Amino acid sequence: MAKIKVQDTEVTIIQVNDEDYLSLTDMIRAKDGDFFVTDWLRNRNTLEYIGIWERVYNPFFNYGEFATIKSHSGLNSFKISVKEFVARTNAICLEAKAGRYGGTFAHKDVAFEFAMWISPEFKIYMVKEFQRMKSAEQKQLGWSVKRELAKINYHIHTDAIKENLIPQELTQQQISIIYAEEADVLNMALLGMTAKQWRDAHPDLKGNIRDYATINQLICLSNLENLNSVFISEGIPQSERLVKLNKIAIHQMRILEETTERKMLK
Questions:
Q1: pTM for the full model?
Q2: What residues make up the domain containing 33?
Q3: Does 237 fall in a domain?
Q4: What is the largest CA-CA distance in the chain?
């Protein structure tokens, strides 16, 4: 569940079958006067739009029931709830949820049309805020993917350590120390400090040093893990590997940062 603020109105967003559905119940608060979602649903233009949307996206839509409902639109006596409409037509663009966090929700396509019914200005701000939220989600997703990639490469890195640096006689505790030392080779080469130095400098932060790395740093870290695995296999001493990895990290980070800056200027 997420929320966006459209002008002074908070609008809840939920996921239904991996699609974004926005709360019409929240949005109606932005409309002047006493109006209800049912007032919008009885409108002929609304029904025509929903009918076309369902035809495109819902192969199980009940057109017979929909035609009956639509034929009554415009009559003073006509009124239908979202729950009844969904039950009779098998519509998927609307969702009526009960409970504390319940209300009427609509697929984003339909919700934007509802926003237009409130006012053109409200719709413009609605679309703007929704796009801002999705952009932020994509950036976070990109960071998460890079973090997972770094974790996968870390396993490649630890396998190289196990095969080349760890004799069979060592205890599990001794093995862990070697893994930590090699992880700190990468930390030092890229971030300039060990995991312990970072923890000592940031006692109030949760997680570890790599959880706070930038996307560019995670990309570089992924590359360094692969390179260090090769260097270990070639028998290069740790001190020499650290110097080589640090030079590579400086070079790659300069390129990544310059590329990012160029994209921002476009």
A1: 0.51
A2: 2-118
A3: yes
A4: 87
